[in-house]
Write a structure and sequence with these properties.
The structure is a single chain. This protein has one domain. It is 58% helix and 0% strand. It is built from 13 helices and no strands. α1 packs parallel to α3 and α7 packs antiparallel against α9 (178-189). It starts with a helix and ends with a helix. Mean pLDDT is 80; it is low at 3-14, 16-37, 42-52 and 139-155.
Length: 276
Amino acid sequence: MGPSSRRRSADDRTLSMPGQGRWGGADHPVTHDGATAEPSDPARSRSRQGTRDPSDDPVAAARHAAEVVRRHLVSLRGGAPFLSAADGALLVRWLDEGVPLHRILRALETASDKRLARRVRAPLTLRHAARHLGAPRATRLPAPVVADSGLGQPPGAEGPLGDVIASLRASPVAQAVPDHTARVADQLAQARPGDAAEATALVDAVAALFDAAWRALDAHSRAPYLAQATAQLADLLDEVDEGERARLLDTWGRSALRAAVPGCRAATLLDRLDTD
């Protein structure tokens, strides 16, 4: 085995192994319940590391991509807070083939939507997103006009995502994790079209936000979303044991919470920011 082969094997193990490097490292520590801290601001990360861009280091870039994909996957499905070995290997292949990270996130969301609609019980994996990597984006609708909020900011003051920010601030997510929501709203307000890296970072930040909000909801606050999940799953819940029932309700409940702020969908954010 040559040096490059050994290096690739090591990279594959790093991506698929939970709790290593970015999997519980200084930037994204794993908490007691298996979640990771919210993604750090790219500008702050660069200031800590000098002017070096993480993308200059292929291994660091691959680990960062794995963490973004892992966070997005967990936000969509719940479950284990790490990529499987098969998912890690598939992600490495896609990155080697030059598939942009934002397309992987979009494809995962599309796969999740379709599987939820068909009531597919098996957990979402990267393999299910493969067929959607080349799917064309939806026709983008113009942003609605946002009325003056009365807070002294004129319409459009928060950029092209002003309506998304307004709906996010008025959502159950803001009630569950107000400080986290405020930070993500600030990131959204600074967004400008045409920057794929920034759009990807925003999708990542929103995924972390919704995961944190779902975890923060108490039983009473979760009840409406779990009721929606129960109605959607219906007789399917009679066919599974208690553990599987809890997992399915968690996945469908997360979907119900995301539906409360449709503007925060990955596809919507990417489309509005002109990111194919």
